[in-house]
Amino acid sequence: MAFRVEHCRKATEFFIKFNTGSKAYLQYAELPNRVLDFQHTVTPEDQQGKGVARVLVKEGLKYAADNKYLVQPTCWYVAKYLDGESATKEEKELDIRHKL
């Protein structure tokens, strides 16, 4: 299933709206020195287990890479994704924990 990820800079979140009226999102904060703090992911209960959070994280990482940001993975899910096997080498290189 393909999900359409939208980005609202004003609300500092990447999100997916579902036909049910619910919304999944990845909230972030922009920190000094071109760092995005990926703080929180939320997936509605009826959408869990479908890869929604993963899609949001990948889109957030793509945005970070395209705009020359590093990422601080405060959210446990983002940290788990970056530490796991499915993150690409390029995605892992965005992780500020590996730059310290």
Plain-language structure description:
InterPro entries: Acyl_CoA_acyltransferase (IPR016181), Gcn5-rel_NAT (IPR045057), GNAT_YJDJ (IPR031165). Pfam families: Acetyltransf_CG. Residues 6-96 form the N-acetyltransferase domain. Belongs to the NATD1 family. By secondary structure, the chain is of the alpha+beta class. It has a single domain, classed as 3-Layer(aba) Sandwich (Aminopeptidase), CATH 3.40.630.30. 27% of the residues lie in helices and 28% in strands. It contains 3 helices and 5 strands, in the order ββββαβαα. It has helices spanning 52-66, 76-83, 89-92; strands at residues 6-8, 13-17, 23-31, 35-42, 70-72. Strands 1-2-3-4-5 form a 5-stranded mixed β-sheet. The chain is globular and about 40 Å long. The N and C termini lie far apart (37 Å). 31% of the residues are buried.
Specify the overall morphology.
Answer: globular
- Classified by CATH, the class is Alpha Beta
- Beta-strand proportion: 25-35%
Alpha plus pi helix count: 3
CATH topology descriptor:
Aminopeptidase
- Count the domains: 1
As a whole number of angstroms, the C-alpha radius of gyration is: 13 Å
Distance between the termini: 37 Å
Protein name: Protein NATD1
Domain N-acetyltransferase: 6-96
Family: Belongs to the NATD1 family.
Pfam family, one: Acetyltransf_CG
